[in-house]
Design brief:
This protein is mainly alpha-helical and about 290 residues long. It has one domain: ABC transporter involved in vitamin B12 uptake, BtuC (Orthogonal Bundle), CATH 1.10.3470. About 70% of the residues lie in helices and about 5% in strands. Strands 1-2 form a two-stranded antiparallel sheet. A hairpin with a 2-residue loop joins β1 and β2. The longest helix is centred in the N-terminal third of the chain and has 31 residues, at about 5-35.
Length: about 290
């Protein structure tokens, strides 16, 4: 097999991993701070993709960039409604209740998407400036994939700065460690939970909007992403943004190269990679930060 083909497939896998990271970063924040197993996170990702498609289609050729801004914001507002209207009542309930409630949201969003957008496939073209290919290390790489890689890096740096350099980020970490003590100090943990859930929803919507030009936008796309996002959370380290980044890149590149060599096992590659990593290091790649 030619080395340029391997290099091209590897780079595309890294860019796909970056998209996975944007979604999984929101999930690891919610899981780390709220301790909620949010199966509806994939539904927010799907909603972001459909909203981006609708905004871009309505605005025409110049609608791609507004769609990248509007879709995540709308998903963030939906996330606020979910958190305030439903999830805040089950924070102290057992995980089984959380799973049932969030899985119920998956079914609700699936039906709503089919009612609004139908059951057919949708597609969104990248903007003219991001069409075509560039040459990296002698391998052809779509410009849009290079854009995805850059956005993933910006998201990782932004989240790290937020968590470790801002007052709100430090409050989030403290709330995850000792909610009662934070309440005693005069900080309303309920507001912190709402802010973290909205941020996680915004990241899910952003991931859906970003991936829209690279996949078929269809009901059911939430199922695959939520499984892979949970794999990222588990093997990267709970609440560790850099762990989520590393594990996303490993899954993206590993799955891309695995499909190249053994396409019949395409569905199983993420699970195989995760199993190998957890056998070698059961606690995850990086240490949990809270």
């Amino acid at each position: 097999m030619h080395l340029t083909l391997l290099a091209s497939q590897f780079l595309i896998g890294l860019s796909v991993g970056m998209t996975l990271f944007v979604v999984a970063a929101g999930l690891t924040l919610i899981f780390g701070v709220l301790r909620v197993i949010n199966f509806a996170h994939g539904s927010l990702y799907m909603l972001g993709a459909f909203l981006a498609y609708s905004v871009a289609s309505f605005l025409g050729p110049a609608g791609f960039w507004p769609a990248m801004l509007i879709a995540p914001l709308v998903v963030a507002l939906v996330s606020l409604g979910i958190e305030r209207g439903l999830l805040r009542f089950i924070y102290d309930r057992e995980h089984l209740i959380q799973i049932l409630v969030t899985y119920g949201l998956v079914l609700v969003f699936s039906d709503l998407v089919q009612i609004v957008w139908g059951t057919g496939f949708k597609s969104l073209a990248p903007p003219p400036g991001l069409a075509g290919y560039v040459t990296v290390w002698g391998a052809a790489l779509p410009r849009y994939n290079l854009f995805l890689f850059a956005v993933g890096i910006l998201v990782a740096v932004g989240l790290a700065l937020f968590l470790y350099r801002t007052r709100m980020g430090k409050i989030c970490r403290a709330t995850a460690t000792d909610r009662e003590m934070v309440d005693v100090l005069g900080v309303r943990s309920s507001r912190v939970f709402a802010a973290v859930f909205v941020l996680g929803g915004w990241l899910a919507g952003l991931g859906g909007a970003l991936v829209a030009p690279t996949v078929s936008i269809t009901p059911g796309m939430d199922v695959t992403i939520i499984i892979e996002a949970f794999l990222v959370v588990v093997i990267g380290g709970l609440g560790n943004v850099w762990g989520a980044l590393v594990s996303s890149l490993i899954l993206g590149a590993g799955e891309s190269l695995g499909v190249l060599f053994l396409p019949r096992l395409a569905v199983a590659w993420p699970f195989f990679i995760a199993a190998v990593i957890l056998i070698i290091k059961p606690s995850g790649l990086l240490k949990s930060v809270w």
